[in-house]
TrEMBL record:
Species assigned in the record: Estrella lausannensis
UniProt entry tagged with the keyword Metal-binding: no
Keywords: TPR repeat
SUPFAM superfamilies for the chain: TPR-like
Per-repeat ranges for TPR: 305-338
Name this protein carries in UniProt: Protein SirB1 N-terminal domain-containing protein
PROSITE patterns: TPR
Family from the record: Belongs to the UPF0162 family.
Residues spanning the signal sequence: none
Pfam family, one: Transglut_core2
Annotated ranges, domain Protein SirB1 N-terminal: 165-289
Length: 515
């Protein structure tokens, strides 16, 4: 890993024609000897630094073999210089990301990498050759190539050259991972190799909170994730799925509320891959909350829609709800009957003052009830019952980061909303959580008790109340709110770990005799 960083840093800093060491240096031979035998990108970077040295030429042969180029292949003999230049260009795009001024791969370079990548498994998908978004939309999910579908949806068919450039970079990433695997490697070994490549070699990571809040769009779409090497859960999960497609590993896509992760499943077990935590496995129960009773699985087509839903959230922050609705409409092509999308569109229309259409969507959400949740969001009821206000809905969607200023700004907006409509349940609950976020525990507890008096049917609020009352040694009250939370969850045949653990703690502090 340290050698890899040194080679790439040297390549990016001094360029491919400025070797740091003499061509015959023993140190050069030592560096070449220390390159892991199956490290395609490291061999390519070494050649790019020392193209005229014997070691550099050997590194090139090694890299081409690892990439799948047969030296005796007539294509290689005829196109070798172009292929070498293509790989070097793609290497730069992989490791530096692509700033605005950097050129994408040319069609000729893309074609040469495509020749190497002919055996990647995504070549079997009908969607691999789609030319327009409409062609993607008519395909069944299992035939969609996620990278092609998402890039067409984002960039449009007029940007096919740029789309193919991004795909070629993904292909080279997949070839690099495959080079380190044994033939017929077990799926678990392939997953381990993908994790090592994305999170160790490439250093993909979750962006800082302040950057994420401001640029969630930058860290969602595949092109931006490749360019920046940063991604939110959806962005890095999409990258992971694109590489898994190429390596023939079928993945499930799972979406707890506000999150996404990917999963590999075989006949005996499954592996959850948490892309915000370097690909570690977390048990399913870790993703289930007091209010979430089951995990929703998505297909590839729906993931493209979710990328547009994430993009729409950017415009809530600026109050540009017409633009948010445009992205929701785009998402609707991929999520035609999705309750979450209907709910978000209903809120946006309500905040815009288009209440008739808003009520139609939110009534559908209320009547059908999301089967993955213990209860519907109180904001649905607030809008339909006349307790919400347009400005209050905007306040609920305000983002906060780690700064006190952003937290205070949201508090003020929520307080104003409650002054306008004192029975606005969602605003009251959000104000309680915001106050707790400001470390004002006593005030936050009072607000939660006010919320309970207004709406005693929210299992998450009852859980928070029980926890806070336990912290303040008000044990009998803590028991009362825990039992309310348990009863509400049990109505939906749900018994989450959080409530079980809280019960154990209360039984230690206050067994039956003290109640």
């Amino acid at each position: 890993m340290h050698l890899f960083i040194l080679l790439i840093a040297s390549f990016l800093l001094v360029g491919p024609s400025s070797p740091l060491l003499g061509e015959a240096s023993p140190k050069l031979r030592a560096i070449y000897s220390s390159i892991p035998p199956k490290a395609l990108l490291e061999h390519l970077a070494f050649y790019s630094l020392y193209p005229d040295s014997e070691e550099g030429k050997r590194a090139l042969v090694d890299a081409l073999k690892l990439a799948g180029a047969g030296i005796q292949d007539p294509f290689f003999a005829k196109k070798a210089p172009l292929l070498i230049d293509s790989l070097k260009h793609a290497l730069l795009l992989i490791h530096r990301g692509r700033p605005e001024e950097a050129a994408p791969l040319t069609p000729e370079e893309v074609a040469s990498i495509d020749k190497l990548a002919f055996s990647l498994q995504n070549r079997k998908l009908k969607g691999r050759v789609a030319q327009t978004e409409q062609e993607v939309l008519v395909l069944p999910p299992e035939e969609i190539d996620l990278a092609r579908g998402l890039l067409l949806s984002q960039l449009g068919s007029e940007s096919l050259d740029a789309i193919r450039s991004y795909e070629a970079v993904l292909d080279l990433m997949a070839l690099s991972i495959r080079a380190k695997l044994k033939k017929n490697s077990a799926p678990k070994d392939v997953i381990h190799a993908i994790n090592a490549f994305i999170f160790d070699e490439m250093g993909y990571r979750f962006p800082p909170l302040s950057s994420f809040e401001k640029k969630v769009d930058t860290y969602t779409f595949l092109s931006s994730v490749l360019d920046s090497r940063k991604g939110v859960c959806l962005g890095v999960s999409i990258l992971y799925l694109c590489l898994a497609d190429r390596l023939g590993i079928p993945m499930e896509i799972v979406t707890p509320p506000g999150h996404i992760f990917v999963r590999y499943r075989d006949a005996l077990s499954h592996i959850n891959i948490e892309t915000t935590a370097r690909g570690i496995h977390l048990d399913d129960e870790e993703y289930l909350s007091v209010g979430t009773k089951a995990l929703q699985k998505r297909n590839v087509k729906e993931v493209i829609g979710l990328a547009h839903v994430n993009q729409a959230s950017v415009f809530w922050e600026t109050g540009e709800l017409t633009q948010a609705m445009a992205y929701y409409k785009k998402a609707e092509n991929y999520l035609p009957d999705d309750l979450l999308l209907k709910e978000l569109m209903g809120y946006a229309l309500f905040a815009k003052g288009e209440k008739e259409e808003s009520y139609r969507l939110l009534q559908t959400v209320q009547e059908r009830k999301n089967p993955y949740l213990v209860s519907i969001h109180t904001l649905v009821d607030d809008c339909l019952q006349g307790n919400a206000t347009p400005s209050g809905v905007l306040a609920l969607f305000m983002r906060v980061d780690e700064t006190n200023e952003s937290i205070a700004k949201k508090r003020e907006a929520l307080e104003t909303a409650l002054q306008e409509s004192p029975r606005f349940k969602s605003a009251l609950f959000a104000l309680a959580l915001n106050t707790l976020n400001e470390q004002k525990l006593k005030a936050g507890l009072k607000l939660l008790l006010d919320y309970h008096a207004l709406y005693p049917e929210d299992p998450a609020a009852e859980y928070y109340l029980s926890m806070l009352l336990l912290m303040r040694y008000r044990l009998q009250e803590s028991w009362r709110h825990l039992e309310i939370a348990e009863a509400l969850a049990l109505r939906e045949d749900h018994s989450p770990r959080a409530l079980k653990e809280l019960r154990k703690e209360l039984e230690k502090r206050c067994p039956k005799g003290c109640r």
